[in-house]
Amino acid sequence: MAAIHILYPDVLSADDHAVERAISGDGVEFIIFNEREPDKIPQEIWSSCQAMVTGISMPIDASVIARLDNCKIITRLGVGYDLIDIAAAGACGIVVCNVPDYGTNEVADHAIALLLSFTRGIPQYTEAYRADPDKGWDYKITPAMTRMTGKCFGVIGLGRIGTAAAMRAKGFGMQVRAYDPFVPDGQELALNIDRAYDLDELLKAADFITIHTPATKLTHHLINEDAISKMKRGVILVNTARGPICDLDAVYSGLKSGQIGAAGLDVFDPEPPNADHPLMLAWRARETWLEGRFVATPHAAFYSPTSSQILREKALQTCLDYLRSDALRNCVNSDCLEH
Which of 82, 91, 124, 286 has the fewest CB atoms nearer than 10 Å to its CB? Predict the structure, then answer.
């Protein structure tokens, strides 16, 4: 029986894909590249692959899908699939899957950690004391310090991660309110949380806001100047979802004016963020007005050694199960498939 060819066009692991090789069994050939541009991969490679596992460096648009003569499945190495043209894939009979459950705990933990960065001031305390052991020994230097118990924790997007974040917030004694128009009525009752039936309601009520929605046309710049103007003054904003959901210019203006008390961002648009963006310039220059009010992490919320291994195993297994036995899980383009 001929080997199964699985293409990794933009994913290069430090261990030469040892995790994948350990579970693949016989008869699998891994074709590994670490490219951003499709033209750097020979056409014969595109033509020969029967499955593809994609990262976040190369958009898989209609022009790339047109190169796939034998591909049956594309699996996104992660949750978000906004870089894949799922309709074009479906029109060619290619299923597109993701791995939605590998890092739920990590992302929810990261969202709470970003919030704690401000409400407990840990990064600023550490930086101040390291810089000046005399003047830095001061518990009053944290501008966003506040008691979390009893505060309104607003969740935008009540999927797996949003729910996990909500449960953690309840553990801190916060009052949780969620907005998600795609979740059926009653979900909030099962979780014993409150529900906002429109975004404005949540924006006006929340002391803290955490974002857990996918990047779609509907959510692009969901957090913009108008949305920020409706938030409580001094709100703490956290985004561990997708960069395009937040208009970074609007976040900068909100921080500058004090409408946003603090912002913790793990995701940006583009990634990494433009180094000359006013927010990034002010942050790196340690401008006084921004000290203790902004934390940036490098799209790392998903990561732990455990989550990384699970992600890699599940992405590959999704491809193999479909190719070997037609077993399909987490298909995101079933509505687009031409049967």
Answer: 286
